[in-house]
């Protein structure tokens, strides 16, 4: 029986592990956190149809229970050594694992919004990120601003840390546009009297049902979309926020008071992916995401024979795309192991 | 507002500021606007802190205003700056201390250009040699004079006779700090605290007992903006920018404004008078204006220097309300007296608070 080590216990790692176990292999999943599931554990509902995230995470965790594969939580990979067709993996708790193949599924990290200093995240009281808003939805807590008031005017800023030369991230994070539309609708459902504005550069509604949701946001929920990026936010004496932007469709500068500002933060490759790139001796692209052998037909193949890539460690991805990418990674590993048998 | 968040930003933007031995370059306009400030800076460094600071009377304007007004070409300003560096090199100094924010931005812009395009540096060396026969070294450390006061703020507090505290109520004075645009907006890493939440003046205010006010239009330009003021037809735009700032800071009831730029205190001070004349509107309590100080004047008051010796009678907005709050004794009769005590005449345009 061949042994495969998967680094990363998020959606991609679990789905790859499940598929490889189905194919009759012995799999060990290494996860740095205390529980598997990755960033999905912190989300509330998924776009475009508001699916509760538990529907996905419960199924993934059920797969882990049903299938016979090992999971090492609170564990990180220290080093990977190749010996001909085998890999020797040393973990942070000093375990030595021998593997016939490795799958890197280290995922992504959320952009640290403090780096966009002009928006005042972690400085102004009522500037939050899309991830904070999901936590709020998940907790079921009532959304209030200064002096316990219900926010009457809310603004979303798209592309925070994505497509932004100043942040050093030239790429599109792919999920933020539709996340903004989804969260704006959710807020409107919670706060029907609130005015909601989305400040965007352009909206990339490429996925199934995305465009329909964007249309519904405007027609049914009266959410205003303004083409223009915020230049700065400042806090006023009553803790509301003064925001400045240029409405690039009307060609005019714009100033607006809002009670809450939501920053739609993008994805970054993160430290886990950088560490995996170093320990596995596989290359990174300029964006920090892992380099694939080919963008079309070999998007799961790394620059090292026997090391495979799954999910958003290669590029920003939606949940759907991550699941499909993980399944194709399992197929590539299977093909490789059959060849080396 | 969460201060921890600001502290994180401040920690991200710390710069190296030389400890001693500075070659000082003055501003070409500050000696008219606030004539005692540069002298106060030199006095603080030499007498209070025992530092070596040298200035050469042959240094000239950096020509930054002409450059930013599209009158002086880049090759010319590079050569003028190279000449300042030649004077520094000839005097045996490696650290330059810059009085003016515009010049500070110019020096940084040119040094960064030379790092990025070494051929420009060689070209300018050649220009300077041909024109003047001089040679130069690029400074090892470029500090704005406010960086140096910031660096020694705790020493100044130790030597200080007054604090930025209302001596009647015991409460910290509320201070608006205004940073010149060219201090860190072009190169955030060259300014203490970066561009969005600069700490250079806030650090002084905190060290000397005051409370910093952060108001919505804090980052907005004072209104100088070169073309806004230099072109007469644009001056309405200049005053409207200053007005926007005053209206934004007014609800916080600031006790005074402090700035580290030549132009900003000038415009924030003088435009208060103009707005009062135009609209009858003042932004301080009881029909008074909000006093506007340079950081050298603020440091001088903390150190107990005579406000009239520092030239504070040149302010259009009266500073007496601030002196009274700090408990500073002053002789109103000597406000417009010369060194010998002879009255030199009162300005005719001053009226009520402003």
Describe the structure.
The complex is a heterodimer of chains A (341) and B (354). By secondary structure, chain A is an alpha/beta fold. Chain A folds into two domains: 178 residues, FAD/NAD(P)-binding domain (3-Layer(bba) Sandwich), CATH 3.50.50; 155 residues, FAD/NAD(P)-binding domain (3-Layer(bba) Sandwich), CATH 3.50.50. Chain A has seven helices and 20 strands. In chain A, β7 and β8 form a beta hairpin. In chain A, α1 packs parallel to α2, α1 crosses α7 and α4 runs parallel beside α5. The longest helix of chain A has 22 residues. Chain A starts with a strand and ends with a helix. Chain B has 354 residues and is of the alpha/beta class. Chain B has two domains: 127 residues, Up-down Bundle (Glutathione S-transferase Yfyf (Class Pi), Chain A, domain 2), CATH 1.20.1050; 176 residues, Rossmann fold (3-Layer(aba) Sandwich). In chain B, α3 packs across α15 and α6 packs across α7. Chain B is globular. The model of chain B has no long low-confidence stretch (mean pLDDT 95). The interface between A and B is medium-sized, with 15 and 19 residues.
